[in-house]
Design a protein that fits this description.
It contains two helices and nine strands; from the N terminus they run αββββββββαβ. By secondary structure, it is of the alpha+beta class. The chain has one domain: L,D-transpeptidase catalytic domain-like (Beta Barrel). Strands 1, 2, 3, 4, 5, 6, 7, 8 and 9 form a nine-stranded mixed beta sheet that branches.
C-alpha cells in the first residue's frame, strides 16, 4: 500500500462518526508491548517504543505490572495492579511530579481505569513505570522533541 493510499484510508476511518483516530501518517507515537525478557525479580520487561512511519526510533525498558498481576482483568478499577488495557491513549506532555516526571495517559476507549500515566517507579502496579530516572528523562525529551500525543498498548 502506498503512503498516500494509507493516509487516505486513515483519514476516512478517522472521520467516521464516533471513530477515534490513531496517529496520522508521519506522526510519531509510542507503543507498549511485552518482551520476552524479565527483570531480576521475575517481573516482565515491557518495551516502550517511539515509532514513526513504521520505524522504531528509540526504545525504553518499562514495567507494566508485577508478574503475579499479568493475568488480571485489565479494565477493572481501582487498583488491581494489572497492566494497562490494550488500546489507544492520549499522552499528556511531561510535567514535574515531585522529584520525578509524570505523563498523563487518557484512554480513548471505555474503561473504569483512571489515574494512569508514565512515571518513575518499580515495581510497576498499573501504570507504565520507567525504573531508571535517566531513561525517563530521555523519554520525556523524545516526547517533547517529536510532539508525541498518542500511545498504543499492543499486548
Amino acid at each position: 500500500m502506498t503512503p498516500i493510499l494509507a493516509g487516505l484510508m486513515l483519514l476516512a476511518l478517522s472521520s467516521a462518526p464516533g471513530a477515534i483516530a490513531g496517529p496520522a501518517v508521519g506522526e510519531a507515537s509510542l507503543q507498549l508491548r511485552r518482551s520476552s525478557a524479565s527483570f531480576a525479580n521475575g517481573d516482565p520487561v515491557w518495551q516502550l517504543q517511539l515509532r514513526q512511519n513504521g520505524k522504531v526510533l528509540k526504545s525504553w525498558r518499562a514495567a507494566a505490572s508485577a508478574k503475579q498481576h499479568q493475568g488480571l482483568d485489565r479494565r477493572w478499577s481501582p487498583g488491581n495492579g494489572s497492566p494497562l488495557p490494550r488500546g489507544l491513549y492520549r499522552l499528556g506532555q511531561p510535567e514535574p511530579w515531585g522529584r520525578d516526571l509524570w505523563m498523563q495517559l487518557d484512554p480513548l476507549f471505555k474503561t473504569a481505569r483512571t489515574g494512569l500515566g508514565i512515571h518513575n517507579c518499580y515495581p510497576g502496579v498499573g501504570c507504565i513505570c520507567i525504573p531508571d530516572r535517566q531513561q525517563l528523562s530521555s523519554l520525556a525529551a523524545a516526547v517533547r522533541h517529536y510532539g508525541v500525543r498518542r500511545l498504543n498498548v499492543i499486548d
